[in-house]
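Hi Y.,

Following your request, here is the sequence exactly as I used it, all 253 residues.
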Amino acid sequence: MTGFATLLRKELLEQWRTTRLPVVATVFLLVGLSSPLLARFTPEILKAVGGDQFQIILPTPTGADAYDQLAKNLGQFGALIAVLLAMGSVATEKERGTAALILTKPVSRGAFLVAKLVAISTTLGISTAIAAAGAWFYTFVLFEPLPVVGFASAMVLQWLALVAYASITFLGSTLTRSAVAAAGLGVAAFIVLGILGIVPTIGRYLPTGLGAPARGLALGQADVDVLGPTIASLVLIAALVGAAWLAFRREEL
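Below is the corresponding structure, written out as tokens. Let me know if you'd prefer a different format.
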């Protein structure tokens, strides 16, 4: 991991200078603020649209509905953003020749890859924290306060799922010289994992399986199984990074 600290500083600075971090953080903030609002006012909007011709009976929204809306939005928009952040991380630099230039310096290929993924994960982490803060506050205002520690823990699991999707796309970016191909792999993996997540025996060990324990933590439920899905996702991320390194270490740039 020679040169990791230097490369990480470069990647983090690039996340800011290219406005990726500010833009992603802003999008996540909007997601966080809008989710409780949608949960609170969607029933009233549907009733207004339906008018007297349609009798729409909906349960009174609660803080759980606000969290569910947040989790749904992060699972969709967040995963898409994770794919977009990772799609050109390596492929674009290989195509432009900047990867070869950087690797002429005293830095290892492993450090080159890990620094990029850590920077992407940091952007996702900061943005998820901002979304969480906005969503928790609006849930407190519109409904009731959710457990702070449990809600924060749930957001960590949501972030871990996003990092998993970014890691899949990151592997594609390492294997190819096309950011579009890497994005295609990430989107395809998102769809496949969503389908496999329906299967109970394996679904809980996929990134999609982090949703159930995250919800339990956010709502303050007891006996939430966090360890299994968390370890499985960490192993998946490590395996994807390892595969990327094995492919990249012998690649001619």
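The chain has a mean pLDDT of 91.

Thanks again,
Q.
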